[in-house]
Amino acid sequence: MKPTTVIVVDDSALIRQLLTEILNNDPQIKVVATAADPYQARERIKQFNPDVLTLDVEMPRMDGLTFLRNLMRLRPMPVVMVSTLTQHGAQITLDALALGAVDVIAKPKIDVANSLSHYAEEIISKVKAAANARVRAYSGGDQLLSPKLSADAIIDPDKPLAPLRTTEKIVAMGASTGGTEAIREVLAAMPADSPGMVITQHIPAAFSAAFAERVNRQSAMEVCQARDGQQILPGHAFIAPGDQHLLVERDGARYVCRLNDGPAVNRHKPSVDVLFRSVAQQVGPNAIGVMLTGMGDDGAQGMLEMKQAGAVNMVQDEASSVVWGMPGAAFKLGASDQQLALSDIAAAIRRAAMKH
């Protein structure tokens, strides 16, 4: 198989060298060129026609956002943003994802050698996923893998379902690659009286609060980053923090958010499988499950458990997904009978909530 070709764009020579070494360490990836700024990048793209670009968010001469906006308008291609873990970096990164970047990776900490193996695993998998992503024009290595734990690491799979004392509906949603824009689109179409929603999106911890604030500005629902013990109320959506699992727990006739700092599940923290299993056990037939675009299979097993507990589930279809990994895995497992275009999901949730 022809390796995935990559151009690394970063103003730091040290970062360019580090990313090149990490990516070239995987036999299925080849860094064909590097560039110190967008002007060099433009020439390298013309010369090498890469499959994927890694792009520093903040650069001299032309910032990464301006370059990305021009690139996605004139020559759309898969881009993975490399961002500093700051509030400013988070806002710029979310703008980049809105412009069409496929994913984001934190800028590596050069001085922390023991964190590099996990970092290498993450960026290699994101570059590979980006190579197969559906990119739309803007119109306006195994030896590094950590053990893959299941949701058993957080929640006992054999815990019996508690008897229900409420008929209140809960919507549980999971997403990864391409999910920030998909979640924003779904929530923007939900009315203020929608059922309470709990959402797990794979996103760096420094970005999750800014992401929740951005979605809140565009939704009639009240959207926030989940805090431990918050009651899940209609008209409210709770997004998992980027470094903790989000679970639903029943407290009498109320549902509350629970945050868990346990190990990564399916190599993700937060994990969709953990959220969905908690919803299967605590909400059962009162739940509506939604799986949006994302790389990998996190959440597929949990969504099947939700279906077995009586939930109504739906997955985003392949044509409208950036990466049909997570929704595809759930559908192939039989966890959902419905495949829907992203633009149809909000209406389907509303219908399910009324008759379910």
Automatic annotation (TrEMBL):
<dbReference type="GO" id="GO:0050568">
    <property type="term" value="F:protein-glutamine glutaminase activity"/>
</dbReference>
<comment type="function">
    <text>Involved in chemotaxis. Part of a chemotaxis signal transduction system that modulates chemotaxis in response to various stimuli. Catalyzes the demethylation of specific methylglutamate residues introduced into the chemoreceptors (methyl-accepting chemotaxis proteins or MCP) by CheR. Also mediates the irreversible deamidation of specific glutamine residues to glutamic acid.</text>
</comment>
<dbReference type="Pfam" id="PF01339">
    <property type="entry name" value="CheB_methylest"/>
</dbReference>
<dbReference type="InterPro" id="IPR011006">
    <property type="entry name" value="CheY-like_superfamily"/>
</dbReference>
<keyword id="KW-0145">Chemotaxis</keyword>
<protein>
    <recommendedName>
        <fullName>Protein-glutamate methylesterase/protein-glutamine glutaminase</fullName>
        <ecNumber>3.1.1.61</ecNumber>
        <ecNumber>3.5.1.44</ecNumber>
    </recommendedName>
</protein>
<dbReference type="InterPro" id="IPR001789">
    <property type="entry name" value="Sig_transdc_resp-reg_receiver"/>
</dbReference>
<dbReference type="GO" id="GO:0006935">
    <property type="term" value="P:chemotaxis"/>
</dbReference>
<feature type="modified residue" description="4-aspartylphosphate">
    <location>
        <position position="56"/>
    </location>
</feature>
<feature type="active site">
    <location>
        <position position="298"/>
    </location>
</feature>
<feature type="active site">
    <location>
        <position position="176"/>
    </location>
</feature>
<dbReference type="Pfam" id="PF00072">
    <property type="entry name" value="Response_reg"/>
</dbReference>
<feature type="domain" description="Response regulatory">
    <location>
        <begin position="5"/>
        <end position="122"/>
    </location>
</feature>
<dbReference type="GO" id="GO:0008984">
    <property type="term" value="F:protein-glutamate methylesterase activity"/>
</dbReference>
<dbReference type="InterPro" id="IPR000673">
    <property type="entry name" value="Sig_transdc_resp-reg_Me-estase"/>
</dbReference>
<feature type="active site">
    <location>
        <position position="202"/>
    </location>
</feature>
<feature type="domain" description="CheB-type methylesterase">
    <location>
        <begin position="164"/>
        <end position="349"/>
    </location>
</feature>
<keyword id="KW-0963">Cytoplasm</keyword>
<keyword id="KW-0378">Hydrolase</keyword>
<comment type="similarity">
    <text>Belongs to the CheB family.</text>
</comment>
<dbReference type="InterPro" id="IPR035909">
    <property type="entry name" value="CheB_C"/>
</dbReference>
<dbReference type="InterPro" id="IPR008248">
    <property type="entry name" value="CheB-like"/>
</dbReference>
<keyword id="KW-0597">Phosphoprotein</keyword>
<dbReference type="GO" id="GO:0005737">
    <property type="term" value="C:cytoplasm"/>
</dbReference>
<dbReference type="GO" id="GO:0000156">
    <property type="term" value="F:phosphorelay response regulator activity"/>
</dbReference>
